[in-house]
Amino acid sequence: MTTRCATTSPLTPTRRAAGLLAGLALGVAVLAGCSSEGADTDCGLDACTVTFDRGVDAKANILGVEAKLIGAQGDQVTVEVAGEQLSLTVGQQATEVGGFAVTLDSVTDQQVKIRVARNTSS
């Protein structure tokens, strides 16, 4: 009779590679879910930061919705997110629209940066 002790074996190279590939596939799926014109996006699972270039038709598809820069004057910006226009000011609390919380991070002469996050309080 053979007695075996229950021990935890380290991950085999095959399991480690499978885990790495699964993580990469998830990352690619998240990144494939966003596209932009005249904008840069930095997305996680539940939030994206969108940096719009001013003076161009700037828009981005993120988290399943479109975000578009409509206009900017001083520190006030008008954006369209999930089909609704919002007026945002730097430092203002998040504005809720279509299950998302939208905030204006910064405005310069060349760029507008907003943050769009899934609203988890619902």
What key attributes describe this structure?
alpha+beta; 122 residues; 5-stranded antiparallel beta sheet; 48% strand
Q: What is the 3D form?
A: globular
Which structural class should the secondary elements be placed in? Answer: alpha+beta
Poorly predicted spans: 4-8, 20-32
Q: Please work out how many helical segments DSSP would assign.
A: 1
Described by strand count, sense and barrel closure, the largest sheet is: 5 strands, antiparallel
Strand adjacency order, main sheet: 1-4-5-6-7
What string gives the helices and strands in order?
HEEEEEEEEEE
- Compute the average pLDDT: 80
Strand content bin: over 45%
Fraction of residues in H or I helices: 10-25%
Structural Rg: 21 Å
For the terminal residues, how far apart are their CA atoms? 59 Å
Number of strands: 10
In short:
This protein is α+β, with helices and mostly antiparallel strands and about 120 residues long.
